[in-house]
Every structure is written in structure tokens, then in C-alpha cells.
Fold this sequence. Notes:
The protein has helices at residues 7-24, 26-42, 49-65, 70-80, 92-95, 103-110, 112-121, 127-135, 156-171, 182-191, 199-210, 213-222. Helix 3 (49-65) runs antiparallel to helix 4 (70-80). The longest helix is centred in the N-terminal third of the chain and has 18 residues, at 7-24. The protein has 223 residues and is mostly helical. The structure holds fe (ii) ion (2 copies).
Amino acid sequence: MSSEPSPTSAAQDRHDRRQQSRDADPQRARFDAIYRLARANEAHDEDTGGHLKRIRTIVERIARRLGMSPDDAVALGYDAMLHDVGKMTIPRQVLMKPGALTVKERAVMDCHTTRGHRMLIERDDMHQAARIARHHHEAWDGSGYPDGLAGDAIPLEARITSVADVFDALISQREYKRAWSWEEAQTEIRKITGSRLDPAVVDALMAVIDDGSLRAALENLES
Ligand SMILES: [Fe+2]
Ligand SMILES: [Fe+2]
């Protein structure tokens, strides 16, 4: 008789080991929950899984550059993955509509910020993620939504996520646009610095681009 474990018991073993490591490390359990939620959301959105992983990496690099501790930067990277989690509640015909949205549809779409906040705020360990979900479309000059906050009144974690989100959208290919080169993306980012984006956060992004560390971290994701 073979002593090989059956496929079912091997799967059970893996499941048990994952459960044990989650029990041992609550932070890991939190990251696990974020992954699941973020991936479930992806199924409903045009974004590929790549966007979420890149957002996490870009946010983490910017946060480190701004002087955040490694642990806080990692946690922030994970929380940023949930920035669009409220899109789960937006009707598919609005979310996937090709072409421009009507004023009414735009208002529905913009609710993904407040809905995401409501989904997350109930959990004590998701308050930072909730702030990001609510405020990642605020603009430095106060012209953003949903609360029209300006400058430092916008939580830093949301300002960092906005910069990472815009940069990644520019360098990624979407149905309606080609992937821009990093140089083109940097030029575009500079144009909206001070209006949409926080100049200090943009400086941090430019620094991790210029020293090559962001490119290395993103290439690492792909391999
Ligand atoms: Fe969003
Ligand atoms: Fe995004």
C-alpha cells in the first residue's frame, strides 16, 4: 500500500496549516482577508489582479520614502488594495459602460467611495482602509469627492494611494488606452501636481522612480 497522502488529505493539511498560521498572527489574518476581498472585487471590475499588486507595491515604496516604518508601509500597501472595494455595490451596467457616463450615472459611480468606507469602517482593523476608500478621489486643491477636502485635511494614506492609483493607471494598458511610458506618465503626473495630487507625495514617487527602486520592486512582482 502506498504511504502517499491522498489529494484530499494533502489539501486538508494545507488548509490546517494556513489556519494555524492565521491564528498565530492576526496581522497575517488581516492581510489574508484583504486579499480575498480585493480579489472578489476584481471579478466585478475592469482592473486586472496586476493593478492591485502594483498599487500595493507603489504605495509601500512611497510610504517608505516619506519616512514611514517598514511595518506601517506594508500595512498601508495592503489597505490601499481596497481603495475601490465599494465598486462591488455599483450596478454592472454603470461600472462596465463603454463611453461617457451621464450625470446621474457619474453620481452613482462616485458613491463607490462612501460605500467602500461604510463596508470597511465596521471592522476595527480596517479603519485606515476605510479612510482610503472614502478619500482616494479627493484632490489637493479641494475639487475632489466625496467630501471636497483639501491639502492636509485629506488623510495622508489617501493622498499616497491617489498618487499610486493615477501613476499605475497611466502606465497600464486599459481597453480604451495604451500603456504610457514611465516618462510620459511622469510628465502627466507633474501637470496635475498641486491641483489633484499632493506635491510632497509626488516628490516621493519621483524619488523612488529616479533611484530605480520602484522599477526593481515592480519587476520583482512579475517574475
Ligand atoms: Fe476609486
Ligand atoms: Fe484603482
